[in-house]
Amino acid sequence: MPHPMSTDIAGRIEDLYGAPLADLEAHAQDQPPGMLSALLGMHEGLALAERSIDVHRDRLARLLHAERQIGPHEVSHLLDGARRLAEAVAVRDVQAKSAAAVLQSLARVPAPTPAPPACSPPVPASPVAAPSPAPSR
Predict the structure, then answer these.
(1) What gap in Å lies between CA 41 and CA 38, rounded to an integer?
(2) Which end of the chain is more exposed for a tag (fewer CB within 10 A), N or C?
(3) pTM of the predicted model, to two decimals?
(4) CA-CA distance, 59 to 83, in Å (whole number)?
């Protein structure tokens, strides 16, 4: 099942950097830590939380199967599963909110346009000779 939050964040990272996520991950490994590696880490945390939600939700669904008897032993498993599910949802929400806030603060910078050719500086005008004083009479 696709996860809309991590998929949305991945798409926004790809749009921001103009490359597929796999290429960005490979590029980030060769670079010192920076904004790209931070965003990729947030995305990975978000995707992990979403996978954890799936696992705990499926486990709870198996424990609550209609034909299954729920006894004292199963109650502790249900409570543990519900707690873990709630933790995964909280982590997902924090990761999604943080990543969205960072991405909202960033914008893709357009490619620099070539500067127009520089004009040559104006040629200074030739100096005008100062008028010589008229002979006095």
Answers:
(1) 5
(2) C
(3) 0.71
(4) 12
